């Protein structure tokens, strides 16, 4: 099994200020590590295409999407929330980030590879139906999920989110959409302080304390996620792949390691092989320590292979 890696140079052109952790160099670190590891020889790399407004409207309020287009700056920068800014390259970067997810869904549904990973930024899982938040402008994984449900008439899509922050935007968008089974682990209490009290049969949240290590995290996945995913029988597995829960990432206080990311990729691949012709699409979310980010993405992609 090979993996198609989607990205686009425009994702580097979302130029934040020098103090912002969600910076272009994150993608360079991943690309460097893909080359250094030799993984380059085992994957197929493709440039993505930008999402259209119509594709974004499936997950977002059209008025919100139109407002983002209208306020995108020609020079300087604007703040969408206290953490999220737009510079002249940001709109196109966000369109390519969401578009890569759509390309990846098309790839696994009708292309040669049944696994895909999107090396994109800005991330997406905090963006709600009508709000930018937490470094996120458009909710990339939600746009991909709705594309799969609309263009391929899928009725059961799993979304796995192991970023150390709760994917509040993804949860909000699919709160009443039971075609999605959302499994999410996150440090709690912690930003954005959501998800611990959600009561929905199709949303399995795993709030876990600071200090959570790979053993307790894997146990949670085995006890609560995998049985539910088996029962759900997804037609497609999507992954909000955030690596800020790595022990070396000081954005948060989980102690996950590369092996844990490889392990979850293997478990999800087995699930997908059994239920949906091996179809897995993962999209980069967080991960701010460049060394561990690059190594973790490589470990995760190896798990997909
Ligand atoms: Zn995060």
UniProtKB/TrEMBL annotation:
GO molecular function, one term: histone deacetylase activity
InterPro entries per record: HDACs (IPR000286), His_deacetylse_dom (IPR023801), His_deacetylse_dom_sf (IPR037138), Ureohydrolase_dom_sf (IPR023696)
Biological process, per Gene Ontology: epigenetic regulation of gene expression
Pfam families assigned to the protein according to its UniProt record, in alphabetical order: Hist_deacetyl
Signal peptide: none
Domain Histone deacetylase: 20-303
Family recorded in the similarity comment: Belongs to the histone deacetylase family.
Protein name as it appears in the record: Deacetylase
Species annotation: Pseudidiomarina insulisalsae
Lineage: Bacteria, Pseudomonadati, Pseudomonadota, Gammaproteobacteria, Alteromonadales
């Amino acid at each position: 099994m090979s993996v198609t890696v989607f990205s686009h140079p425009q994702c580097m052109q979302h130029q934040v200020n020098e103090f912002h952790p969600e910076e272009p160099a994150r993608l360079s670190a991943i690309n460097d590590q893909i080359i250094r590891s030799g993984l380059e020889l085992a994957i197929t790399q493709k440039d993505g295409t930008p999402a259209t407004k119509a594709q974004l409207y499936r997950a977002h309020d059209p008025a919100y999407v139109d407002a983002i287009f209208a306020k995108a700056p020609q020079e300087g920068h604007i703040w969408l929330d206290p953490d999220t800014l737009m510079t002249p390259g940001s709109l196109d970067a966000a369109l390519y980030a969401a578009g890569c997810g759509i390309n990846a869904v098309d790839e696994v549904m009708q292309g040669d590879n049944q696994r895909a990973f999107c090396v994109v930024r800005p991330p997406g899982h905090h963006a709600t139906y009508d709000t930018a938040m937490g470094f996120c402008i458009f909710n990339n994984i939600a746009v991909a999920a709705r594309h799969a449900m609309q263009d391929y008439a899928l009725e059961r899509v799993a979304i796995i989110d192991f970023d150390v922050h709760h994917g509040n935007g993804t949860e909000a968008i699919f709160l009443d959409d039971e075609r999605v089974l959302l499994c999410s682990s996150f440090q709690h209490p912690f930003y954005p302080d959501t998800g611990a009290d959600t009561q929905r049969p199709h949303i399995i949240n795993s709030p876990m304390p600071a200090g959570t290590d790979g053993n307790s995290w894997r146990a949670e996945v085995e006890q609560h996620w995998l049985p539910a995913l088996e029962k759900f029988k997804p037609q497609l597995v999507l992954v909000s792949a955030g690596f800020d829960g790595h022990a070396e990432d000081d954005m948060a206080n989980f102690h996950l390691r590369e092996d844990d990311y490889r392990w979850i990729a293997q478990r999800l691949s087995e699930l997908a092989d059994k239920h949906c012709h091996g179809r897995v699409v993962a999209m980069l979310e967080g991960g701010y320590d460049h060394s561990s980010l690059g190594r973790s993405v490589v470990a995760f992609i190896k798990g997909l292979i």
